[in-house]
Amino acid sequence: MKLADILTDVEVVGLSGPTDIEVAGIACDSRLVRERFLFVAIRGEKLDGRLFIPDAAKRGATAIMCESLDAPPEVEAASSPAISGQDAASTDVTWIHVSGTRRALAQAAANFHAYPSESLGLVGITGTNGKTTVCHLIRRILEQAGYPCGMIGTITYRVGDEVIPADRTTPDSLLLNSLLAKMRTKGCRYAVMEVSSHSLEQQRVEKLDFDVAVFTNLTRDHLDYHGTLENYLRAKALLFESLSPQQKNGFPRCAVVCVDRPEGEYIAARTPVQVVSYGLSSNAEVTAENVRLHPRGCSFTACTPWGNFEVASCLIGRHNVLNILAAAAVGLSQGVETSTIQQAVATASPVPGRLEFIRNDRGCSVVVDYAHTDDALKNVLTALREITKGKLIVVFGCGGDRDRGKRSKMGEVVNRLGDFAVVTSDNPRSEDPLEIIGEILSGFERGKVASWGPRAGSPSHLVEPDRRKAIAAAISMAAAGDTVLIAGKGHETYQEFKDYRIHFDDREVVREVVRT
Predict the structure, then answer these.
(1) What is the DSSP letter of 298?
(2) Residue 495 forms beta bridges with which residues?
(3) CA 215 from chain center: how many Å?
(4) CA end-to-end span of the chain
(5) Which CATH number fits the domain 356-515, given the four candidates 3.40.50.300, 3.90.190.20, 3.90.1150.10, 3.30.1330.30?
(6) Whole-model pTM?
(7) pLDDT digits (tens, 9 = 90+) for 142-194
């Protein structure tokens, strides 16, 4: 594609060099640059992409896009011919200066891949908790209705029959447009994706043409990045504000919003499209009656403007009733029959790492879940309490270099709703695991003791920074009828420390422990 075509609608503030040259690809990582590539030097929080302009040029970049203002001293000589004092005519590289590289990259990526989101029914899900489960359920419903559907989420990216391990919840705009283009080529009718608050703030989903946006909930998380809950909510609202009121693919665009909490009303008031509200409150359009929760799942009557119908699912807990309602609302908004939704939900398997039961012959239940916020822990523990005959033992920690304010809140929830806690490491990253654990324990009730078995009269928690040993300790103290919840990492297969990462899968560790 010609560079001039890639730059269509990009807000260029300075240009030197030809634009009628062919560009073979775009990269924002210099290590991925090949001959005749456009390299976009993103100015990130930790690294300035302009530092890697020389490497990109060495690898064959034919065009460089960067921000022209306030070049740091270490990149002044590499930022552009003007900065280095070279004559523009003496270089083979075309330099494009823009005011914001993230927005410019999103536009360039959409141009390069011929706006793939315009050819797909694009569904985006955002919220603190529930995104992954809702994403999987929506895909299941659309596929059941006969619509091939790609998926971009926390666990995997799915393009036709191809399954790609996910590097992050919402990839950068380059990879997003590339994945959507592949979905279009492989005949997908829809794409469903999780949209993180980081991706909205960092303009990764700019220029994507969403048909439906879903808001699940908002509770404390990511305040290390957003600073306040208000900023976090405003970031989520960006997805809904961006929706176009114009019809696409034969159906009006809509926002599917949970209105059980005030944040939902905030979101609903800020979108220009039709709002389909859902929830368990009386003012929701899509809601549930006769909710029945049991150890094998849930069932209820879905009450909707499209008619009422019975729902049965193997997903456990009241929070999954909400997740099912969200997915059903999306399906109904896209013309899917209620009978199709019933069948899709009834046959949907649990999402890996979300209330995933690990089989064992010890008579106890061992469950792995991704819950890593106080609200998510509350939902999971409440669900497990309703189906646990014995004691509820919880293994959990908190991630390092992340919002410290939620640590004591997570400790308080586990201390209140669990019978015993084993406090351990999650992904400590650059922090001291014991300091993280100390902040978690500040949320525990002082003097609370266990009232059961060999632990009676002892503190209702123990500290074991080694996560493998913590899991083994929790399982060893579980008796028949007890439940052990291992929370925080879910589907993750690694553990992050200061300068290294190791392979670590809670599910694998559980299976090793129960075999011994």
Answers:
(1) E
(2) 502
(3) 13
(4) 59
(5) 3.90.190.20
(6) 0.92
(7) 999 999 999 999 999 999 889 999 988 899 999 999 999 999 999 999 999 99
